[in-house]
Amino acid sequence: ACTANGSGRVSFDEAFSNLSVSSAPSAPPINGGLMPPRRSYSLYKPKDMPVAHQRALEYAECVVCFDNMWKEQAGVFCDARGRRTCPHFLHHRCALEVRNSNMGGKHCPVCRAEFVDVTEVPGIDDDPHEWFKIVDLNGDGRLSQREVVEVLKAQLPIDYRRLEAELPELWKTWDVNKDNIITHKELLEPNKGLLAYVKANFPRVDEDAIPDIRTDKHGWFNYFDYDKSGTLEQGEVVRALIKTFRLSEDHTRINSMREIVNAVWGVFDFDNSGSIEIDEFAQAGDGLADSIIASMGG
């Protein structure tokens, strides 16, 4: 039978394009003993993924506590055989919280892929071989550009935006055989590998300070309105408040903040759209901002 790409071989994306995330296999199929097709990250980005999770992934944050990923040990979800079930990184403690919580069952909070347990990702310099093994989503001894970008965003305080923009060109230097993937040595070779180059040339850029929600409500709203739509969804407001009040280290306080926002949200989201406009948020005395602040005890 002919395939969409005319090569006679069905690609991984083509083979599973009609499957939901939960029905996608935990390991790619073997094609007649050949190297398995590389697993696609697009399979694990649901179209209905909450905006707050989109922002967290975009800004290299943990999707549970919304703090920078690089600040803590990373963790990944795995099946009963220890194989990763999806490409997402969370803080290890937050991944354990997801595993131990009854909320949503044992599913990745981003892509809903089922998992059995959580594996800690070692530091790159602590155990390079084990690190590479865990990061290698397909288990084929090679890493794609996307695999490299995602793990470096998760573990290093780097300018990930520059890295994402410049990596396709840089990749050519280390991808010696031009197959769009690199090996353990090409990535981790001391002083010469891609990792050493990234550490030396992509220092992290400091973020702008968050405006004070009590004294500059419009500024606060606009700071977190990344797409300048004039609206924020409920999850975006929760994420913003967690970051503003630095609640990331305490899951109990994170959950309390979610409950506070949920309790007052319906008063302001009149059309049940899930989003709120800036005037409804910032109105003095009667806006969502003041209601949330009052619910927190001022």
UniProtKB/TrEMBL annotation:
Residues 123-158, 256-291 form the EF-hand domain. InterPro entries: EF-hand-dom_pair, EF_Hand_1_Ca_BS, EF_hand_dom, Znf_RING, Znf_RING/FYVE/PHD. Coiled coil: none annotated. Residues 62-112 form the RING-type domain. It holds the Pfam family EF-hand_5. Keywords: Calcium, Metal-binding, Zinc, Zinc-finger. One of its GO terms (molecular function) is calcium ion binding. This is Calmodulin.
